[in-house]
Design a protein that fits this description.
Blueprint: H1 3-21, E1 29-35, H2 39-51, E2 56-62, H3 64-73, H4 84-95, E3 99-104, H5 116-130, E4 142-146, H6 150-156, E5 178-180
Helix pairs in contact: 1-2
Length: 181
C-alpha cells in the first residue's frame, strides 16, 4: 500500500470515528486519550472533529516509555500516586458532557519483566482514585477505537520486514482494527 493511499484510509477511519463512533455534535468539546505513536491518526481525528464543528479538541498524550521508566526507577511506594489535576481534568470533562475518545494502541510487551505486584498496586490505586468518576458513566458520547502501533505490529507480524512498516505510523496493512462505542 502506498503512503498516499494509507493517508486516505487513515482519514476515512478518523471520519468514521468522529461522525459515527462518537456522533460528535456541533459545538461539543472532544477529549482524546492516546499514545504518542498514534499522533498521525490523532491529527486526522482532530481535523475531522473541527470540520464536524467541535468547539475544542483536547488531547491527553501518553508516552508508554515513561510509564515503563516509572516502574523501573521510581520508589515503589510512589507508584500509588496520581496527581489530583488528572482527576479534576476528567471530572470537568464529564460534568460538561464533552465527547470522549480513547485510542487503544499499546505495546503488548511494555511491562514485560516488571514485578506483577507493582503493576497491581499502581493499577489498584489508580482505580480507587477514579472510582468517584463512575457516577458519570454514559453521561456523554464516547468511543474506544484501536490502532496498530509499531510495537503491536512487530509483535503480531514478526516476519514482516521493516521495509513494509510505514515510517509514519505502524504498518501499512493494519490501519483500522476496531471500533467500540
Amino acid at each position: 500500500m502506498e503512503n498516499q493511499e494509507f493517508e486516505k484510509m487513515l482519514e476515512k477511519y478518523a471520519d468514521v470515528v468522529v461522525k459515527v463512533g462518537l456522533n460528535l455534535r456541533k459545538g461539543q468539546k472532544l477529549s482524546i486519550r492516546a499514545i504518542i505513536e498514534d499522533a498521525p491518526f490523532i491529527r486526522k481525528v482532530t481535523e475531522s472533529a473541527y470540520k464536524a464543528g467541535a468547539k475544542y479538541v483536547d488531547v491527553l498524550w501518553v508516552d508508554e516509555r515513561l510509564t515503563r521508566i516509572r516502574f523501573e526507577h521510581a520508589d515503589p511506594e510512589s507508584l500509588t500516586e496520581t496527581p489530583n489535576w488528572i482527576f479534576s481534568r476528567f471530572e470537568e470533562h464529564y460534568q460538561n458532557g464533552e465527547a470522549e475518545l480513547a485510542v487503544a494502541s499499546s505495546d503488548p510487551d511494555l511491562l514485560f519483566g516488571i514485578a506483577p505486584e507493582l503493576i497491581a498496586r499502581e493499577r489498584k490505586a489508580r482505580a480507587q482514585k477514579f472510582e468517584p468518576l463512575r457516577k458519570y458513566a454514559n453521561v456523554s458520547n464516547w468511543c474506544v477505537v484501536a490502532t496498530a502501533s509499531p510495537a503491536w505490529s512487530r509483535k503480531v507480524f514478526p516476519g514482516i520486514s521493516q521495509m513494509k512498516h510505514n515510517p509514519n505510523y505502524g504498518m501499512l496493512s493494519s490501519t483500522p482494527a476496531a471500533l467500540t462505542c
